[in-house]
Amino acid sequence: MNESLQDQIQFLVEIDKLKTIERRTRIIHGERRENDAEHSWHLAMMALVLQSHASKDVDILKVIKMLLVHDLVEIDAGDTFAYDTVGYEDKYDREIKAAHRLFGMLPEAQAEELLNLWLEFEAKETDEAQFASSLDRLQPLIHNYQNEGDTWQKYNITSEQVLNRNREIATASDTLWTYAQQLIQHSVDQGILTKS
């Protein structure tokens, strides 16, 4: 086996660990919590299906690539709960270290490509990164709505926190932001999300 292929296979074996990183959100059709690999797959499908709702033309392949790599760093850094303000204090430091280790397993050109995709997603400055990030915000919102506010209730999350967390959806899609606001309001009206 040539060296590049061996490095690529080792990387693929290593990232299988993403399946073991549990998130706080339950899957929609079951009682167990979603793992990071499932989350990333679901986001990639959301990008494919919802791309027409992006406010600007985006390179959908680039968006999907970002979504597939954005949480790989959690293999080392762990999942930081969306509403954990203390966890966010050193989140980037933990994740950039993980990004260099994980992507550094690959041949140089691929390592650089994936690291740059991850950095672009984190910076949220390009149209693609903003759309990818908006989907990353919308997906757990949909899950919580479908699961009758399970995570929100478990961690005493308020509608103000949910609105503030998801406000950046508007940067990438007016349509998806309107939909998100409707879900939040309907959740409050149903009593599955506490009004702040």
Attribute tags:
Hypothetical protein af1432, mainly alpha, two-stranded antiparallel sheet, 196 residues
Structure description:
The protein is mostly helical and 196 residues long. It has a single domain (3-190), classed as Hypothetical protein af1432, CATH 1.10.3210.10. It is built from eleven helices and two strands. The protein has a two-stranded antiparallel ribbon. Helix 6 crosses helix 7 (127-146). The radius of gyration is 17 Å and the shape is globular. The protein starts with a helix and ends in a 6-residue tail after the last helix.
Question: What's this entry about, in short?
Answer:
The protein has 196 residues and is mostly helical. It contains 11 helices and 2 strands; from the N terminus they run αββαααααααααα.
Architecture blueprint of SSEs:
Blueprint: H1 3-15, E1 22-26, E2 33-35, H2 36-50, H3 60-69, H4 74-77, H5 91-103, H6 108-123, H7 127-146, H8 150-154, H9 159-166, H10 169-172, H11 174-190
Antiparallel strand pairs: 1-2
Helix pairs in contact: 2-3, 2-7, 3-6, 3-7, 5-6, 6-7, 7-11, 9-11
- Principal-axis shape: globular
Total number of β-strand segments?
Answer: 2
> What's the architecture in CATH terms?
Orthogonal Bundle
Q: Compute the number of helices.
A: 11
Main beta sheet: strand number and arrangement? 2 strands, antiparallel
The CATH H-level superfamily is Hypothetical protein af1432
| Strand-residue proportion | under 5%
Instruction: Give the rounded overall mean pLDDT.
Output: 96
CATH class annotation: Mainly Alpha
CATH topology-level fold name: Hypothetical protein af1432
